[in-house]
UniProtKB/TrEMBL annotation:
Pathway: Amino-acid biosynthesis; L-arginine biosynthesis; N(2)-acetyl-L-ornithine from L-glutamate: step 4/4. Belongs to the class-III pyridoxal-phosphate-dependent aminotransferase family. ArgD subfamily. Homodimer. The modification N6-(pyridoxal phosphate)lysine is found at K254. NCBIfam families: arg_catab_astC, argD, PRK01278.1, PRK05093.1, PRK12381.1. Pyridoxal 5'-phosphate binds at G107, A108, F140, D225, E226, V227, Q228, T283. May also have succinyldiaminopimelate aminotransferase activity, thus carrying out the corresponding step in lysine biosynthesis. It catalyses: N(2)-acetyl-L-ornithine + 2-oxoglutarate = N-acetyl-L-glutamate 5-semialdehyde + L-glutamate. Its cofactor is pyridoxal 5'-phosphate. This is Acetylornithine aminotransferase. The keyword Hydrolase does not apply. Gene3D superfamilies: Aspartate Aminotransferase, domain 1 (3.90.1150.10), Type I PLP-dependent aspartate aminotransferase-like (Major domain) (3.40.640.10). One of its GO terms (cellular component) is cytoplasm.
Length: 406
């Protein structure tokens, strides 16, 4: 065995494209809600790999699933199917509105497939003129050119030349804005039940139900991007359950693999049949390793005990954040659902969310931003109570540091 190459944060600047700006510390090991860096320093992780590590780091059931499958079969491509993919698809169908599943590797790929399917369905059933896709401002649907154009943040889509056409953006939680854009030429409306990157902004029940009604009126598909909200994140297996609406297509990823890259779309038979043989594909999608890990995660998360526990943990998070805010007066509100929560900066601290992240790292605490005004928390769905206590002690110190620097 060759000697392992020594690398550090400076190596990133030497060999990696500069489209990221990672923190100075380099994580090397994780266990549950704890992470250690190259210097052996320990952190409490409430970032969760951006809502990915649904069972924390190195959960024994996921490690076992990966090790067992790793000794059986890694990859065969979609010229063949495989048992883990078939088992996982069956469990997803049995637990949701869906009849059919398509596996891919990420949330962006899932949304790409969902939008392609919506366009193909409209062309086959109606006409080529029925091609408008409506999304929402401040939304985020991935980084492929199609999905980043569907996303409602031009900062991510500008500067790459001509964009895919027939994509329009309404105002989130504003039904009149959607009504002004939608017509019989609309093939799909895509939205997040809760905007993640757009600031941890949940849809109101009236809005979600109104979108469903407008889609029905104009024969448009309702596509729910549950990449960040799905697979238990909000205390429901998928967040559409909260609203009492049935979507036509759901995209899912992030928590689906518990840290292993996997994505999927879920849909009904009459829609699925329009992705005929050869119309779409992926080399790695549905590979045995990813599906084995995701199946193990599913078996843990889709239980009454874990889903109910998420709501209990949400209450603890909200209490801790309110206590911190009572001391320092930095947040205007705490919003979100389940364990996807956002602490919104008040006017006095507007635009300073990143300062709280930097101060948190110094205190051994990991969290996220969701735009310049929101500190975002997306921890393990089974984070232990003592880790919640310790994590918010550290966050309290970080907030104190930022406020003291005013």
């Amino acid at each position: 065995m060759t000697d392992q190459l020594q690398v550090n944060r400076a190596t990133f600047d030497e060999v990696m494209l500069p489209n990221y700006a990672p923190q100075n510390m380099v994580p090397v090991r994780g266990d549950g809600s704890h992470v250690w860096d190259q210097d052996g320093r320990e952190y409490i992780d409430f970032a969760g790999g951006i809502a990915v590590n649904c069972l924390g780091h190195c959960h024994p059931a996921l490690v076992q699933a990966l090790q067992e499958q790793g000794q059986k079969l890694w990859h065969v491509s979609n010229v063949w199917t495989n048992e883990p993919a078939l088992r996982l698809a069956t469990k997803l169908v049995d637990a949701t509105f869906a009849d059919k599943v398509f596996f891919c590797n990420s949330g962006a790929e899932a949304n790409e497939a969902a939008l392609k399917l919506a366009r193909r369905y409209a062309v086959d059933v109606y006409s080529e003129e029925k091609n408008q896709i409506i999304s929402f401002k401040q939304s985020f649907h991935g980084r492929t050119f199609f999905t980043v154009t569907a996303g409602g943040q031009e900062i991510y889509s500008d500067g790459f030349g001509p964009k895919p056409g027939a994509i329009d953006h309404a105002v989130y939680n504003d039904l009149a804005s959607l009504e002004a854009l939608i017509s019989d030429k609309t093939c799909a409306v895509i939205l997040e039940p809760m905007q993640g990157e757009g600031g941890v902004m949940p849809a109101t029940p009236e809005f979600m139900q109104g979108v469903r009604a407008l889609c029905d009126k104009h024969n448009a598909l309702m596509v729910l991007d549950e990449v960040q909200t799905g697979f238990g994140r909000t205390g429901y297996l998928y967040m559409y359950e909260l609203y009492g609406v049935e979507p036509d297509i759901v995209s899912t990823a992030k928590s689906l693999g518990g840290g292993f890259p996997i994505g999927a779309i879920l849909t009904k038979n009459h829609i699925a049949e329009h992705l005929k043989f050869g119309t779409h594909g992926t080399t790695y999608g549905g590979n045995p390793l990813a599906c084995a890990v995701a199946e193990a995660a599913f078996d843990i998360i889709n239980t009454t005990e874990v889903l109910a526990g998420i709501k209990k943990r949400e209450a603890m998070f909200r209490q801790k954040l309110e206590q911190i805010n009572d001391k320092y007066q930095v947040f205007s509100e705490i919003r979100g659902e389940g364990l996807l929560l956002g602490a919104v900066m008040n006017q006095a601290h507007e635009g300073r969310a990143k300062e709280f992240i930097a101060a948190s790292i110094e205190q051994g605490f990991m969290c996220l931003v969701a735009g310049p005004n929101v500190v975002r928390f997306a921890p393990s769905l089974i984070v232990e109570e003592q880790d919640i206590e310790e994590g918010f002690k550290r966050f309290d110190k970080a907030v104190a540091r930022v406020v003291a620097g005013d």
